[in-house]
Amino acid sequence: MFDRPDKVIRQFHGYYRNYVDHEKKHESKVEQFGVDFPERRSFYQLLAKGLRKNRSLVEQVLQSLQAHLPEKSIDEEPLDKMAYTTDLSYLMRDWSGEKAHEEEVLKTAKSILEMLGPYYDSHPSVLVLGAGMGRIAVELGEQFREVVALDNSPTMAYCFNHLMKGSLSFYDIQLKRTFHQSEMVKEIKASIKDRNDDLIMTAQRIHYLLGNALNMPLKDGSMDIVVSAYFTDVFPLDLLLEEVDRVLRPGGLFLHFGPLEYHFSDESAMYAADEFRPIFAKYGFDWITETTLENTNFCRPSSMLQQSYKNWQFLAQKRMVTDKGSMQKNPCLCLADAITYKVEGPLGKHHDPSIILYGGREPLTITPVLLEILKLMSNPIRLEQLLADFFHLFEITKEETETRKMVVKSLEELMEKGIVKAQESSL
C-alpha cells in the first residue's frame, strides 16, 4: 500500500537480499572463531546458530517479497538503511511474555489508554502509526471498535501476521554489557496464541497495513484518533502533521507518546517540546493535555546498561472548524441524518424539560434552545443565515459575540456527535 508499490517492493527486496548476504558472511566468521578459540567453541557454535535462526526469519520475509515482484523486474537501487527493519528486539518486547518487557509495554499502553479514556465512545476508530510488532495496537483494541496498525517495515508486518497463526522463535543477541554468558545469546519464543482469549480475539481484529505514514492508504477524514507512540520524531513534524490532518475527521484526536530523539538528519526540523503547541495550532489543533511518564526502554535485567525514557505525552484535538475548514467559508449546514426526539421532565414556565435526541452516534440529551437550532436546519441553510434566524427567533436585537460563539460551539459539538454536517452548496 505504497505510492509506487513495484518500486518499493524492489527496493525492499534489494535491501533484504544484501542483508542476508552480509549475515551469511558474519556467520562464517563466527564459525571460524570456534575453530580459532577452542576454549569458547560451544559459545561460538551457539552464536552461529542464533545468527542463522534470525537470518532464516529475514529470509522468509525476503521470499514473501519475492512473490510480489513484477515478472519483468529491473534492479532497483536498494535502500541503504531501513530503521528497525531487521531488529527483532520489538518482537521480544511485545510478545515474549518476559516480565520486564510486559511491565514496560503495559505501562506505556496504560498511560495512553488513560489519556484517551474520555473518548472511548465518541471516537471509535484508532490509527496506530509505526505500529511495529503490533502490541500497542492490540492493547488499544480492547477499548476501541476499530484499530488500524500502520508500519513501513515488511519484517514487522510479516511477524505480526505470522503470530496470528503460531509462535515465532528467534535469538536475542547482546554481546556487550552482560554479566553472564548465558545472556549473550538467548533463545526467545514470541507468541500471541499463548495469551488470554480476549487478547487473542482483539489481535485478530487489528487491521495491519504496510504503508508510508506520509502517504497513508486511508480516505480523508476516516479516522477518529491517531496514536503516535515512539513515532512522531521519525519524520519532520510538518510533513507528518499534514498527512495526519488529512486522515483525521473534524474533532479527531492526535496522541503523542515518547521522547524526541529525531531519526532524521534535518536539524531545522528538530523542535523542543514547548514548540509543538503553536505548530499544532497552525494545523488547526487545540491542545488538550500533556504529561510525562518515565519508563524503561527494552529493559534487560541482566545488562550493565539500563536505559529509560522520560516520555512526553500529549493529546491534541483537530478543530471541528479549522481555518481551512468549511465553516469559515459560511458552509451549508444540514442534519446528517433523520433525527427524532423525546421530551422528558416537567413542562412549564419555570421548568426546562430534558430532550433526548436520537439519530447520531448515540442518544444525546440537549436543551430546548439547541432543539430550536436544529429545527432551523430542517432544510440546508448557510451558517450566517442560521445565525440571523436564531437571533430573530429569540428576539436578540444585537448580535452578541459571546452568544454567537456559543451557537457555533454547539454546532461543532453536534457535528462531532454526527447530528449535523457541513456541505458545499450552491445556495
UniProtKB/TrEMBL annotation:
Stored SMART domains: N2227 (SM01296)
Keywords carried by this UniProt record: Methyltransferase, S-adenosyl-L-methionine, Transferase
Pfam family membership, one: CARME
InterPro entries xrefs: CARME (IPR012901), SAM-dependent_MTases_sf (IPR029063)
Enzyme Commission number: 2.1.1.22
Highest taxon of source: Bacteria
Signal sequence range: none
Recorded family membership: Belongs to the carnosine N-methyltransferase family.
Protein name: carnosine N-methyltransferase
Organism: Echinicola rosea
